[in-house]
Amino acid sequence: MGQFYPTLVGLILASVTPSGDNYIIIPFDIYGSGVEFVINNNYIWLISNNGADGDNWSKNNIATGGAGAVGYRLPYDESIANRIKAVIV
Question: Which residue in 39, 55, 3 sits closest to 47, CA to CA?
Fold first, then answer.
């Protein structure tokens, strides 16, 4: 997963809720943890839940059912989307 962080630039400052196909790396939980990709026709999002005690909630730019998450996006790229889909089932 770390290999995608340098590629996924463009931190979005507004609080949004991306929609699309979810590819879960670590399921979101009630403790504020979890990581997933959301892929739609426009963007590939990497979303990291950031709602645990001690997390800096001011960084959150993704609306969740809790404190929120930090999301990074890049324009949709078929080769990157296919790599994510091949690795995460």
Answer: 39
Indicate if the alpha-carbon torsion angle 8, 74, 45, 85 is positive or negative. Answer: negative
> Could you tell me the pTM of the whole model?
0.81
Inter-residue contact 25 to 88 (CB < 8 Å): yes
The amino acid at residue 56 is N
Q: Give the start-end residues of each E strand in 1-89.
A: 21-26, 35-39, 43-49, 69-75
Contact 88, 23 (CB under 8 A): yes
Assigned token pair, 85: 């889909």
At residue 84, what are phi and psi to the nearest 5 degrees?
-60, -45
The answer to whether 18 and 39 are in contact (CB under 8 A) is no
Q: Answer for the pair 25, 38: CB distance below 8 angstroms, yes or no.
A: no
Q: pLDDT confidence of 2, banded at 50, 70, 90?
A: low
What tokens does 82 get?
């296919």
